[in-house]
Amino acid sequence: MPSDAFVARLNEQVGHEFAASQQYVAVAVYYDAETLPRLSSFFYAQAVEERNHAMMMLQYLLDAGEAATVPGTAAPRTDFGDVVEPVRIALDQERKVSDQIAALAGVARESGDYQSEQFMQWFLKEQVEEVSTMSDILRVVERGRENPLLVEEYLAREAPADEGQDPTAPPAAGGAI
Fold first, then answer.
1. Which of 85, 48, 66 shows the shortest CA–CA distance to 5?
2. CATH 1.20.1260.10 matches 4-69+76-158
3. Which residues contact 80 (CB under 8 A, 6 or more apart)?
4. Under 8 Å CB-to-CB from 116, ≥6 apart: which residues?
5. Are 76 and 25 in contact (CB under 8 A)?
6. Rounded to an integer, what distance in angstroms lies between the CA atom of residue 12 and that of residue 18?
7. C-alpha span between 62 and 66 (Å, rounded)
8. Could you give the CA distance from residue 20 to residue 104 in angstroms, rounded to a whole number?
9. 57-88, pLDDT tens digit by residue?
10. Which residues make Cβ contacts (< 8 Å) with residue 123, sequence separation at least 6?
């Protein structure tokens, strides 16, 4: 059984994941309006990924017989000074989420909740990838600030192909949509 502290923090994290998803939608819409379809597509996909992280957390709570809540989120930021700022915000967000995930794993460990600690391992691994990817995109966007079409070209050339569902990922409530 997950500890009460872990359940409370995981429910809180669900809200953070949904907020991240909303922020990525706002970033994608910004790039869509700027006619930068590769950046837009990248962030739309990131939004779905963050939403699915929240759904995985909800499923874990349901499977554990715990109360799963869906907290509200603040409105995302929708105005940006230039093409670099949204990616900088995204990287800051991923670093913050990494800290939150590590803290959650710590709560599980401190309370001797080995199942919840094991559940968090996938998210810890995922956050390393997320921060690395966003760091790379930020460096490219900073270099292409004056000509964002170079960023579009980079994404067309270097973006990894969608490999489908990660078989090691926890199940998501409602299935992976």
1. 66
2. yes
3. 27, 30, 86, 89
4. 2, 3, 6, 10, 60, 64, 108
5. yes
6. 10
7. 6
8. 17
9. 999 999 999 999 999 999 999 999 999 999 99
10. 53, 101, 104, 105
Query: 150 exposed, middle or buried (CB, 10 Å; 0-12, 13-18, 19+)?
Result: middle
Structure tokens at 65: 């017989």
Two tokens at 71? 């907290």
Cα–Cα distance for residue pair 18/155, rounded to 1 Å: 25
pLDDT in tens, 124-134: 999 999 999 99
Domain boundaries, the chain: 4-69+76-158
Determine the Cα–Cα distance for residues 5 and 20; give it in Å rounded to an integer. 23
DSSP per residue, 138-170: HHHHHHTTT-THHHHHHHHHHSPPP--S-TTSP
